Amino acid sequence: MTTTQTVPKSLTYDDYINDCPDDGQKYQLIDGKLVPMMRPIGKHEEIGGFISLELGLEIRRLQLPYFIPNTAAIKPNRPNTGYVPDLIVLDRENLVNDSYWEKASSISLATSVKLVIEIVSSNWRDDYLKKFDDYEALGIEEYWIIDYLAKGSARYIGTPKEPTISIYQLIDGEYQVNLFKGEQQLISRIFPELVLKANQIFQAEKPTMG
């Protein structure tokens, strides 16, 4: 007697945004397969909340046409793939051109995105390799990797390995990187007046003013 095994269907991006399970779990779409996102640990959430607040204050102070959504997915050029970044800064003025936004809180055009931030967890290779390639290919202007546990390979964060923020900026279609550690102040093309040191992000707090 022979048995026939059913090959799981490879999901398209439209399948992902239209039929993703509504079970309280966040999913990404990786090469046609739904992949549950790991529940972040406390420090991960502290850093994400701190960055969101600081960038939100900068957006308000400078009256920029940007905002930070609670949750938004990105459709890269890679087939049957969709990411949910830890933090994304969107350009309100360009969203009208992105057909996925109103129907699915989803982004398919680089012009909709000013900045993507990933906070490294156990799957650091996704942030430094796969997502790096896909965000670069899509043409996202700036990409931060916040590696507060120094999990990335030494070829990405240097030796000795220590907590590092990698800021990639798109120049002539390719990402160029600057690394920030300790008391070094971040340099961002999207937020050129931002005054924030790497350690302030790792500690998720600004020092009190004396």
Task: Give the SSE layout.
Blueprint: H1 13-19, E1 27-30, E2 33-36, H2 42-62, E3 66-67, E4 73-74, E5 87-91, H3 101-104, E6 106-107, E7 113-119, H4 124-138, E8 142-147, H5 154-157, E9 164-171, E10 174-180, H6 198-203
Parallel strand pairs: 4-6, 7-8
Antiparallel strand pairs: 1-2, 3-5, 5-7, 8-9, 9-10
Any overview of this molecule?
- It is a single chain.
- The chain has 210 residues and is of the alpha+beta class.
- The protein has one domain: tt1808, chain A (Alpha-Beta Complex).
- Helices cover 27% and strands 22% of the residues.
- The protein contains six helices and ten strands.
- It has a six-stranded mixed sheet with strand order 3-5-7-8-9-10, sandwiched between helices.
- The longest helix has 21 residues.
- The chain is globular, with a radius of gyration of 18 Å.
- The model has no long low-confidence stretch (mean pLDDT 91).
